[in-house]
Write a structure and sequence with these properties.
Structural class: alpha+beta
Subunit structure: Heterotetramer of two alpha and two beta chains.
CATH topology of the largest domain: L-amino peptidase D-ALA esterase/amidase
GO molecular function, one term: L-glutamate N-acetyltransferase activity, acting on acetyl-L-ornithine as donor
Strand order of the largest sheet: 13-12-11-14-10-15
Binding site for substrate: 147, 170, 181, 261, 380, 385
Family: Belongs to the ArgJ family.
Order of helices and strands: EEEHEHEHHEEEHEHEHHHEEEEEH
Number of helices: 10
Catalytic activity: L-glutamate + acetyl-CoA = N-acetyl-L-glutamate + CoA + H(+); N(2)-acetyl-L-ornithine + L-glutamate = N-acetyl-L-glutamate + L-ornithine
Number of strands: 15
């Protein structure tokens, strides 16, 4: 049931005419309480879409009654008129719910640099409000936020005492987040304050969604929202809730990874033996963004030299003569030089694991990426035309 798995939430996904395909393109998720506690993380791109600027202000209050999302237009780089459009969208939802626009979050995704057709969008909001349900509404909402995603992405888990966490996400390109990735709405009927939700969300996304780096391109619209209704009347321990939330975010991360635009390989880059977690993440991201290596993996060529080259561009602590690299379990590089025969590496499976041992400390991190394919280039060669 996606975001409607927890009690206290209704959702809808409708066709408003924003997508040329005629598919669903407006989603609405409403928290009926009794609590409205919420938290959010957003892109660190300095070029922020109007909905991000609006929702950041909303989340400062720690309360969200509803979030309205649209695909078919990012409302980014649209100036003051674009921000006014976001405000008008929030006001529309607030009017329909007899509530305050200051507790309505807004998310948009799609082409940058064009204003949204507000007549279509606001009519879609009307329609979504009329179709809110706890039944199929969550699945419809998850479907409505897709752009180049081939499938809707949902996840849910049940915690001790019977509370639930439900989630939906979209993202297939521009997956190189900082704090968040593309659009995601997570709901829970646990009874937790905004401060706890914020800590839990940052901890969970920090080791999951934030480490998905498929193409090195950071979106202007990245948003992850966590809303709590308190309807289950369960107050879980923060550590327990964070662990369950991390499971949900990890599930979403995997779904985003395998549906990345044009990808034929899902690559896990495990960096171990690092002097710090920061070093491990830095090295992992450098490898994930190395186009030569991504091409090699697509061609099923275990070219470990490209891994070492990427490691060497970072400021991480390591000795080049103590680097070790394994590809799908075969240690092809030992001590900064050749190791086992690279012909032993089997790169035919979709899942590929690259392990880099920096031999510099006890810390580790995993970053996920994909290969670079002709399909990816084709899909992004004429996105706006």
């Amino acid at each position: 049931m996606s975001v409607t798995a927890p009690k206290g939430f209704r959702a809808a996904g409708v066709v408003a005419g924003l997508k040329p395909s005629g598919n669903r393109d407006v989603a609405l998720v409403v928290n009926d309480g009794p609590s409205r506690a919420a938290a959010g993380v957003f892109t660190r791109n300095r070029v922020r879409a109007a909905p991000v600027l609006w929702s950041e202000q909303v989340l400062k209050g720690g309360r969200v009654r509803a979030v309205v999302l649209n695909a078919g237009g990012a409302n980014a780089c649209t100036g003051a008129p674009g921000f006014q459009d976001t405000h008008a969208t929030a006001e529309k939802v607030a009017d329909l719910l007899d509530d305050s626009a200051g507790e309505i979050a807004v998310c948009s995704t799609g082409l940058i640099g064009e204003r949204l057709p507000m007549d279509l969008l606001l009519t879609g909001v009307d329609k979504a409000a009329a179709e809110l349900t706890r039944g199929d509404g969550g699945l419809a909402a998850a479907d409505a936020i897709r752009t180049t995603d081939t499938v809707a992405k949902i996840s849910f888990r049940q915690g001790a005492g019977g509370y639930m966490i439900g989630a939906m996400a979209k993202g297939a390109g521009m997956l190189a987040p900082s704090l968040a990735t593309m659009l995601s709405v997570i709901t829970t009927d646990a009874d937790l304050p905004a401060e706890t939700l914020d800590r839990a969300l940052r901890a969970a996304t920090g080791v999951t969604l934030d480490r998905l780096d498929s193409d090195g391109c950071m979106s202007t619209n990245d948003t992850v929202l966590l809303m709590a209704s308190g309807a289950a009347e369960v107050v879980p321990a923060e550590e327990e809730f964070t662990a369950l939330l991390t499971e949900v975010c990890a599930d979403l991360t995997r779904q985003l990874l395998v549906d990345a635009e044009g990808a034929s390989k899902a690559i896990a880059i495990e960096v171990v033996g690092a002097a710090s977690t920061g070093d491990a993440v830095t090295v992992g991201r450098s490898i994930a963004r190395n186009n030569l290596l991504k091409c090699a993996i697509h061609g099923e060529d275990p070219n470990w030299g490209r891994v070492l080259s990427a490691v060497g561009t970072t400021d991480a602590v390591f000795d080049p003569d103590e680097l070790n690299v394994a590809i799908n379990g075969v240690w092809v590089c030992r001590g900064g030089s050749f190791g086992d025969d690279r012909d032993k590496v089997d790169l035919r499976p979709r899942d590929v694991t690259i392990t880099v041992d920096l031999s510099a400390g006890p810390h580790s991190a995993t970053v996920w990426t994909t290969d670079l394919t002709a399909d990816y280039v084709h899909e992004n060669s004429a996105y706006s035309t």
